[in-house]
Amino acid sequence: MKYSYIFFTIVFLLHIANVLLPSDSLQYVLGILAFLMLVLSIGYASNLFKILGTVFSAAGLIFFFTTDLNISDVVPMLANNLSLLTLLAVLPWMNSVVTAGRFDKLLQNLLRGNVKNLGSLYQRSTAAMMSLTAFLNVSSATIAHDVLTDNLKPIEKKAANKFIMMTTLRGYSLALPWSPLEVLLAMSIFITGVSYGELLPWMILITIFMYLVDSMWGRYYFGKISYPQKSESEVKRKSNHIRAKLIQLIIALISFLALVILSGNLFNMEFIFIVTILVVPFAALWAFFIKRWKSFCTIGWNKWRNSVNNMHNFIVLFVTMAFFTGCLNESPALLMIQEPVLLVADYPILILIMIQLLFMILSMFGVHPVATMGIVGGISPMLIDILSPMSLAVILVTAGVSTVPVGTYGLVVTIISMSLRQSPYLITFYNLLYSIVFGAVGIFIAYWLI
What we know:
The chain crosses the membrane at residues 6-21, 28-45, 51-70, 82-103, 169-193, 199-222, 246-265, 271-290, 311-337, 349-371, 392-416, 428-449. Keywords: Membrane, Transmembrane, Transmembrane helix. The chain is mainly alpha-helical and 450 residues long. The chain has a domain at 102-290. The protein is built from 22 helices and no strands. The chain has helices at residues 4-20, 24-42, 47-64, 71-77, 82-100, 104-111, 118-136, 138-151, 157-175, 183-192, 196-222, 232-266, 271-289, 293-309, 312-330, 333-343, 348-364, 369-377, 380-387, 389-402, 411-420, 424-448. Helix 5 (82-100) runs antiparallel to helix 14 and helix 7 (118-136) runs antiparallel to helix 11 (196-222). The longest helix is centred in the middle third of the chain and has 35 residues, at 232-266. It is globular, with a radius of gyration of 22 Å. The termini are far apart. The model has no long low-confidence stretch (mean pLDDT 87).
């Protein structure tokens, strides 16, 4: 739908107004508008998200008939996840300033660095992917694949493909636990109510640990394969430019993180809402200071319009998930679902392992970790009583992120699979041990925080 972005944007602006000036009447109107968004989007969603939406709707309907709710009570529930959709709608503006400032070229230059073997390139590639994924998200995987494919032409094809499968997906996953622009992190905070500032140090600790462990493994595993070096003059010519761009990117990243934490401490507002209202002005100011305002406006408008016009998958997922969660929380069936968890309430480590396995197994069957988080979120009040809010937040983030490299039908795995013409199950196999270690680290930290 060419002009659906206009309707969606009106809904998002009304949602922002409702957060600033809460109104029961406006919440009801937003519920009706959310339903209309669902009706408009269902025909354009992919088969996977249609199936997920149908399952959530069917389950929610079953729970509805076990409650004392009526239709008028359900309508406002449909708008409960508009915060997440509004956040997704503004993210292209941050992506646009990175593109306008040509920071995406930084990834290309970093991956063409002067290294002696693939082991050293592995470390550099993972770090470069992690740095830019914080702003570019999926786009960084596409750029890294293109650059690495070109750079690794002298390398034996099987080794080159394996290298790309690992560095792109693992580097990508390392940016997700701490980036305020990541929807999995936003959902975890939304479900548990923890402070981003309090959660951030643990996420950074997990990221650093996983990067060091994976880098050492990559240096050992690929270190025996030599890599053609660039000429010394070429390296010197580009080094100053790369250093300046990298410093700009680091300053922007630290500034945004600090602004999010400071705003969260000053204003009594949800983390998702704070990030949502900060993205556009921050990106605009960044573009102004680096003198890329015109490019930012042009690129940003096109990216944003195209992105909002194609939000159908997430609209179907989040609106049906809101219906499912709302009905579940009011249903006696919640007690039945809670029973297996209560049986192991005295052994929280088993609950943490169960959550991790649920994310991992469902991801291999194509279930998006956001959908799995919605399922777990339905029993989050009980889990918080057993685990503590911070412990639950940590396991939700790490369990969700750890599935990214092994999500057989996930977006990034699909992109790499199609580009390399390799089976997605092969990519899952190559990254399975990494994901298991990532999940285990998350379980350990979450258990420590109980």
